[in-house]
Amino acid sequence: MAAPVWSVDPRTGKQREEVATEATPAEVDRTVRAAHAARASLADRGVRAAFLRTAADLLDEAGEHVIEAADAETALGPGRLTGELARTTYQLREFADIVDEGSFLDILIDHADPDLKPIPRPDLRRYKLPLGVVAVYSASNFPLAFSVPGGDTASALAAGCPVVVKAHPDHPATSELCASVLRRAAARSGLPEDVVSLVHGFEAGVELVKHPLVAAAGFTGSVRGGRALYDAAAARPTPIPFHGELGSLNPVVVTEAAAEERGEQIGSGLAGAVTLGVGQFCVKPGLVLAPAGPAGDRVLKSLTEAVSDSTEGVLLDHRMRDNFVAGVRERTALPGVESPVTPGESGEHAVSAGFLTVPAASLADGDTHELLLEECFGPVTVVARYESQDEISAVLGRIPGNLTATVHISEGEANGAEGSADELLAEVTPLAGRVLVNGWPTGVAVAPAQHHGGPYPATTSTSTSVGGTAIERWLRPVAYQNTPQALLPPELRDDNPLGLPRRVDGRREPGSAA
Amino acid sequence: MAAPVWSVDPRTGKQREEVATEATPAEVDRTVRAAHAARASLADRGVRAAFLRTAADLLDEAGEHVIEAADAETALGPGRLTGELARTTYQLREFADIVDEGSFLDILIDHADPDLKPIPRPDLRRYKLPLGVVAVYSASNFPLAFSVPGGDTASALAAGCPVVVKAHPDHPATSELCASVLRRAAARSGLPEDVVSLVHGFEAGVELVKHPLVAAAGFTGSVRGGRALYDAAAARPTPIPFHGELGSLNPVVVTEAAAEERGEQIGSGLAGAVTLGVGQFCVKPGLVLAPAGPAGDRVLKSLTEAVSDSTEGVLLDHRMRDNFVAGVRERTALPGVESPVTPGESGEHAVSAGFLTVPAASLADGDTHELLLEECFGPVTVVARYESQDEISAVLGRIPGNLTATVHISEGEANGAEGSADELLAEVTPLAGRVLVNGWPTGVAVAPAQHHGGPYPATTSTSTSVGGTAIERWLRPVAYQNTPQALLPPELRDDNPLGLPRRVDGRREPGSAA
After folding, report:
1. What domains can be seen in chain B, in order of their start residue?
2. Does A421 touch chain B (CB under 8 A)?
3. Which residues from A are below 8 Å from B234, CB to CB?
4. How would you label B83-98 residue by residue, b for 16+ Cβ within 10 Å and e otherwise?
5. How much is the ipTM here?
6. Which of A219, A36, A339, A229 is nearest to B430 (CA)?
7. Can you give the pTM of this predicted structure?
8. Is A376 a catalytic site residue?
């Protein structure tokens, strides 16, 4: 008997409905084979772009149902989910534009040069091909933007790769609903529905990453789960690229001058970033270096007020709630750690936000406080009070890789009139994939220049899961040597029949869409 | 006592001189730390480009000594090594040009758009940074172009990464000589010598890939050695990118029409590709699908003559010679395998070239002949005689990933007048990173559009180790959000003070070097 998959209401802990069953190994195999068989249908860029736009349209149409299902399963609230759906369909349309524009094919053409010294050069033409079936492991905390219709799926389909999504158990009904919309969009675009499929179940996820016809994987989730799947991907007879976004502390440094200039504003801004979405953002600031002394006190006072005023919230599931409560308790028990606003359980299902403080010196030396350098999922942050620049450096030197690093500096430091923020920026840049000045990392804009990734454990590769370049993860280059024009793919022919942007003999040629 | 490292003459099997000692773990650690400490010196692109050009100049100057040392250790001959040195210095200068031109930084700038729907966009600017210390594992078969001063080293330095090379034990003296030239070039360019270092010893190589300050690795060598290091890289607490080029069968398909049109020429061309460099090329054609019947017979007749006429040669070391002899013996023992020209030992140190034949049907079904689908390093190839298109497809369907795949077709098939070579090209493209028509894969041109990589086990990643895009392996993107102009790296400032090519708000801006 296949195990049932239940949709659960985190606000009550009660089962809502039986949504599906966990996929058996045979079902995973059938699903992957069907996806693989459908891959040629995605070869045409025009069809792919149309499919992505239709998917966006149909998701918008189904918006009310999607948001209702997602809210019932995640407790994230209709407001946030409405924004997330808009972001998700915007992302699908962005990738349609990227497919149309064609730069992602990275076309390079070098004509033969028989006179080249020291060695004559043959005719070489290179572009990029889709890798094949992509396994997508969806996140719990964004049931749309980082789940079935999210960035991994959108970028893989844009690249021409069929997708098999492993549903997150925290929102199986939303996953089923979104998968059915995507499959309907495929059919409406003249594609086989199997270009997108969904499987449920932990074991199904493990089977998936090991399947010989799976060519790459994208993952958003915990360090433990992501690392286990990464290891499985690397241990295959034929290893595959595993693009995982695992965990991130997202350090923030508040300079003394910034705290003096606008300590209250920084405190309240920080409270907003920590409590947004009940602290369940992969870019939630988890460690804040703030000055000891009066200026830092003002940051903390404002933070205390704003966090105390924040409403309680319901986490995505009860396991996360237990982990959050235990994680806070463990951290609070460390020597020197105080909790001006203690986060924790609130009633039977909710949690309240809070924050901890610790002298930065405790983090700088030894291993006693290492736990504070690990992500704690939920509405809590740790403020480390520093006495000197050296303490800032010492703590930054101990932080593992991050998605983001943020500095809050004064106006004088920003324009160079006062001290050098250059050095501070140079110090945080090696730690992260995105560096912010005087902002908050929550909110990951979908834009060509976005980079949502960072040194391990932020990601398991050097790539991004948000933004235009996310498509690069699902492609591999191939070069054709001395191939007759008639046999070349149209992308690589001299007359450029598809009007694509290319680099020919070192010179850029704009595409017709440019 | 540290183990001595001997230079050995493969023509006699005798030790030439003691060159160095194997690096202890403490020495590997010191070397990596020194490389890491030197990384900031490579930040300036102008200095990097000058360094690469100086390295090329000094290698050219030292040419006579380098070639003499390499010939004494590898028996590849001064002719071949002179060409390889020219290719190596050309490659260093090419990467200097790439560094100057700046496209590799992949600069994307999106200005803030507060009116963007559904979500306002912050200012985002992205470019690429060097990863850090790169470990390079050099190949045996190209003591220059894929060794100390080769493509991995050149591309890593171009990216701004210090390099620690693990010397190949088949040419330690050449490695020492080249490393000293590169270190001299660094000093002459105002850089610390430690931007390039060399370590010897198997254990040192294992230590190297595990070192916490090593940020990425490049490898060219065997499937067994490469996979072991890949596994070690993946098993680290912080996994690192491992770009390994491991093994490749490099299949060739000769159509019936091509064999009819120019069977003799194909046979002699094949003999050249199989015997070049005593068959020690990673792109040596190891499996040739040729038609059964009279047209195929003509290919074989010509191949037989040309291979019989080829001179005997000395392999890179005696272990390879033993493996070659054993590999040929094992393959020849398989049912249905014949050896029209039996390759094997020739005297005490040399080997002679040859080839085997087998009915393609034997390869198409079952696992009895799987060994013929594995690379056999040395001057031998396997010709599989096919009776039908279906047999071609069946054999191609069983071949693992390759660096190259080649088709030989007739003039009519090339221009579409006769049958469809389209399908054949579509069938071999998924197998390889480079597809050739009517040529031979030996000779890997250094060119922007080159791709020297392919599905596993050809490479462990989707990247290339030859050509301009090889630099991409050693970089990671970082995005700056809402960062004041004065604090941005000059590469990302609005006024583009370095004149770099960029993509700003979706529009390409050419650089001043373009």
Report:
1. 21-103+128-246+462-474 (3.40.605.10), 251-437 (3.40.309.10)
2. yes
3. 230-231, 234-235, 239
4. bbbbbbbbbbbbbbbb
5. 0.97
6. A36
7. 0.97
8. no
